[in-house]
Structures are given as C-alpha cells and as structure tokens.
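Class, discuss our next protein.
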Amino acid sequence: MVGIDQVLEKLSTVIDPDLKKDIVSMGMIKDLELNDGNLKFTLELTTPACPFNVEIEDDVRKAIGELKELKNFDMKVTAKVMEGRSLEADTSMATVKNIIGVASGKGGVGKSTVSLNLALALSQAGAKVGLLDADIYGPSIPLMLGMKSAYMDVENNKLQPAKSHGLQVVSFGFFAEQSHQAAIYRGPIISGILKQFLVDTNWSDLDYLIVDLPPGTGDIPLTLAQTIPITGILVVTTPQDVASNVAVKAIGMFEKLNVPILGVVENMSYFICPTCNEKHYIFGEGGARKISEQFKIPFLGEIPLNSGIMAGSDLGKPIIITNPDSPSAIAFRSSAKNIAAQCSILAAKMQEEMKSESENKPADDSPQTN
C-alpha cells in the first residue's frame, strides 16, 4: 500500500515554473491525509493570478496518477498571495501584502489606463486589490471608473476607500470633484497627502495595492519609495524612442533608491486591423523590449492600441469590464498574471534571504543580567 512518503516524493517532482522550486519544499501542499488508499490534500498556489496555475494543477494530477495503488484522489485548489514586502518593517500598512508602483517617464503613455485595467484583472483572478490614484495634480481614476460622485468616509481617523468593481479605491479626485478646485500645492504638501492616503487609509486585507504614480521622477515617486517598503515598480512605456528614453530615467531613479523593478509593460504597442486582422506598428516597434534587454528586467506584456480603451475610460467603463474578450482585455489579463508572478518571485527571494540571515546569525552567548 502506498504511503505518505511516496506521495510527497511524487509531489516533489512538480516544479513551480516561476519559483524554480518544487511545490513540497515551497509549502504548497496543505492538510494531506492518506487513509486506506484514499488521498486528500489542498494545493495552495502562491497567487490566484499565476500564469502557470493550470499547468501546476495538471502536473500534480499527472504525478499522483502514477501512484496506481491509490483508490481515490481528492485535491482542493486554493491560493494565498505571498508577502512581497517586509510587513514587520511597516506596521502602519500591515494589511497590504504587496505594493506595486506604476510609473512612467513621461505623460501620455496611458499609465493610468494600464494601472486601472491591471488592478481589475488581478481582482477578477480572485485577488483582493486596492487602487491608489497618487496623481494629486491630475487624478483620473474616478472618471475612468465612473465614480465622479463618489466620496470617502472617515471613521476612527481613517479614510475608508470607495468601492468599485471589487476594488478599494482612493483618489484625491474624490475631493477635487466635490470642491471643483484645482490642486495648487507645493511638493511637501503633495508628499504629505500621499503619506496620508497610504498610512491613514483603512486598506482591508489587500493582496495587491496598485499605486498609479504621476509621470516623471518628482516628489510623489520619491515619497512612495522612501516612506514605506514596497514590492516593486512597474514601468509603462510606448514603442516610441522618446517615451522609451524617458522611461529609462525613471528606472534609473528607482534603481538608485534600491527599489526593485518588477518589469516593463508596453502600451499602444500595435493596432489590429479589423478587416485584415494584421498587426500594424503605428508608433514603432520594440521599445519596451529594448529596455528589458538593456536593464535585464522582465518584459511583462504589450497592450494593443484600441479606440475602445479611450472611449471606455472617458465613459467610466474600463474595457476589461465592457469587452472582456477583446485583444486589449486579454493582453491586460496576461500582463497582470506576469506581474503577479514577479511579485511571487520577489517574495520567495525575500523569504529565502530572511531564512539565510536567521540561520547565519550568531548565537547570543552573552551572560544575562537583571
């Protein structure tokens, strides 16, 4: 009769393609029970948005299927997002596992559109997601979500995020719409507002907080990088050389601040002709891939040009909601999975480093005093 050791041996042959480790050593097998040939366990994946979830499940079933002595096999599949940032070093935001800043070197590359649709894609995959519109001067997320009349309550000195399509949303636009005033503030005040939005908001158990940063390398990106531990930065660019060249400066800034770069996404990559169904590279080709190769950072996806994205944003109807089968929506979901995978990779690396530090830490043999 097959035993637990044999089951674990078979399961340890299944490798997570992103983490390059077997699922047993990663602790992804939970509640394993084996009684009289009846096997039952839970496969706990590192994120519901992993691009290889189906592949891992199939590999597990194939591995267990090789144990011919089993009478019955019952596998429950769940997901628990890994912590990609040090929560011990950030007790003020201990309910947020991953913070992803979305940056660009210049305006006009569709960064807010990418931020919103990626957040929605992660939420649709089953993750708990927040979206912070950190562009104080030009907040656009409320308009893009059709939330112009929304507002945020304050309870126990904490901002309560507005809710939309499963997202927890915070934006200065909620205040600006009510007052009809432009934000005319100097840098220190802007930085103070962002800090309030980060630490004085009741973020409720988030797997991912997407922070839509203003373009450039000014006060807001610096404040985010220096205020709290974050998982990493996603850089958005377009194929043009001018956009790519400026995006490089944003990457350089975050590298100097020792903030991990999750990767780069290229927006407006190409146009798919509705009649011939061919790709047309209107703004050039390969800008983001060149950045990826130059800085040795992951290329996480390319989003096709689609007039429906712009129209949907103006009407408060994101394309991933209104046209989920469109090439653009499919591209957003693919990019979101790649981003989630990068967060898991960084989280696993961080855990490994913490484990190594703990093992190499010298024992405290000093005498105890009262």
